[in-house]
Amino acid sequence: MKFTHFDLLALLSSIAIILIISRLLAELGRKVKLPVVMGEIVCGILIGPTVFGYFCPGLFDHLFPKTGGAKIALDGLTSLSVIMLLFVAGLEVQLSIVLKRGKAAIYTSFTSMIIPFILGFGVVWFFPHLFAFEEKRRLVYALFFGIAMSISALPVITRILMDLNIYKTEVGMLVMAAAIFDDLTGWLAFSVVLSMLGKDGEIINVWYTIGMIITFGLFMLIIGKKLIDRALPWIQTKLSWPGGVLSICLGFCFLGAAFTEYIGLHAILGAFIMGIAFGDSVHLHEKAREIIHQFVMNVFAPLFFVSLGLKVNFIQNFDLTLVCIVLFLAVVCKLVGASLGAWMGGLKGRDAIAVGFGLNARGAMEIILGTLALNAGLIDERMFVALVIMALVTSIMSGPLMKRFLTVKPERV
Amino acid sequence: MEPFDLNRLKGRPPFPFETIAVAISFSPRLEALLSAAKRIADTLQASLLLIHVGEKTKEKEDRLEKLVTKLAIDEKKCRINWMDGEPVETILRLCKLNIVDLLIIGALSKENLLKFYVGSVARKISRKAKCSVLLLTNPSEEFQKVKRFVVNGEESPKSIPTINTALYLAKAFGVKEITVVKELHIPGLAMTMAEDNTAPEASKMKKDFAEEEEQGLNSIIGQCDAGNVLVNEKFIKGKPGYTIRNFAENKKADLLVVNSPDKKMRLLDRIFTHDLEYILEDLPCDVLIVHSRIS
Question: Which of B113, B191, B238 comes nearest A226 by C-beta?
Answer without folding.
Answer: B113
